[in-house]
Amino acid sequence: MKFGSSVLAGPADAPAIASDIYAEVRRGFRVVAVVSAFAGETDRLLAEARGLGLAHDNPLLPAYVVQGEERSAALTALACDRIGLDAATLTVRELGIRAEGPCEHARPVALDRAALGQALARHEVVVVPGFGALGPDGRAVLLGRGGSDLTALFLAAELGLDHVQLVKDVDGLYDRDPNADPNARRYDQASWAEAKALGGGLVQPDALDLAESRQLCVEVRNHADGHRTAIGAEGATPRRVPPRRGLKVAVAGCGVVGGGALSRLLGDARVEVVGVLVRDPAKPRDIPGIPAEALASLLVDDADALLDRGPDILLEALSEADAGHAVIRAALQRGVDVASANKQAVSRDPASLLTLAEAHEAKLLWSASIGGGAPMVETLRAARAGGPVAAFEAVLNGTVNFMLERLGAGASFDQALAEARTAGFAEEDPSSDLEGLDAAAKVRLLAFEAFGQMPDEVDIPRDVLSADAPPPPGARQLCRCRLDNGRVVAEVRLVAGALDPLFAALNGERNALKVIGADGSEVRCRGRGAGRWATAESLLADLGELAARRFALQDA
User: Fold this and answer.
1) Considering the entire predicted model, what is its pTM?
2) DSSP labels for 199-231?
3) How far apart are CA 223 and CA 208, in angstroms?
4) Mind listing the pLDDT tens digit for each residue in 393-415?
């Protein structure tokens, strides 16, 4: 995936880029993210260097200029880490692309794969700077204007991949300028030759030459709505694009998760936030990036009043099971798509909720209700698609895992709980976490995904974490679930001793899942299991899927 300065204009855009990357990771991919410098940064660095009277072909200049890409790569990796992605970054020198030719317009010829290969083996995401490479003498060189496109395509070719995503602020390739001619038609599929003739600055010409010579498909994808033009060997007739209307989104809940999602939504060009359901609209709230008066106009305390504002999609992040379940049902009955982070609500009767959604041509997603930023639902579904599931084991509660680590380090129970609250992991009333009820609800949902049936909550034995019963050193709250003669058996226990390294190595609020197939195979995932940004990110990823569905219906 390549992100240019049109979508990564500055540090404030890094969280949205991380969202794009997260969406691909939860589909099961590892990602190499190639980034350009922030908007205007390359020109600024060039001007600073040339202000000293340097010639255009000065061999020292590229080393100064590539700092722009390296800075945006480091910041993007930090944004990925914040939402729970296991990310790393490489410098131009570490990346190891070798190039020949003029120092400001060189051509890549080889890749030393050692550092990139090691990084991909250890991490879900590797963020690398575009535009720069190393010349024959080991000095930095540049790959020409738009060279980050060329970086991305060259890396894909050298890694043996067959396509690249170039994420941009345009919605594809047109047969003429759509800004000048309202009759312009858009390509869903175009040939390399058509792209060279019509693309202008859409894709670097050198990159298109490389794509053709190495038989790479280039997907030019719109950052806002996900439409893409696939550029490859064959083209197709362009078509008129019907006008799209923006999507209306409502949010239920304005706490840690709902407030985190809301702060991101108000900068999302795809959607219009029409309302936010809260218990007390008069209560002061501090949502990053939202003035108090703007927030006040969105707040309502009645679910029907919220839905009367006509949302296409509801993001449900209430902390109460009854209220969450009621608003989910009410939304689905109106044909409103729902993404929920409320495991207690959706685990009550997921099958009937899905039936209700289908009856009203709506869609219900609940990935955010399990695992925070760890894509557990997607991992389990992928495992089940490969064959029957026999069992799974998981650490599912970030609050408890965080507290167990602090207790193991010598903190008192009250101190560990206070730190969990300060970090945004524990609610004011943490009983659901400490008594294992939160984990049990997640086990029930994962069992539904794995086996199509769930154990009753009362049939899941649970160990309680309390000040009166200190856990053994090195303990984890481990959830186990298996299919036993057609019956689902599950437990939530505080376990110490010889743990699977996947669980033993978890630190802080991180969660992990191991799915065991009937054939003995294993599929694993891990990530931040609690906290505003990790859980909100999963909710926003569900929103992205629902938005893509709505936009596809508009295009049909």
Assistant:
1) 0.87
2) -TTSS-HHHHHHHHHHT-EEEEEETTT--EEEE
3) 20
4) 999 999 999 999 999 999 999 99
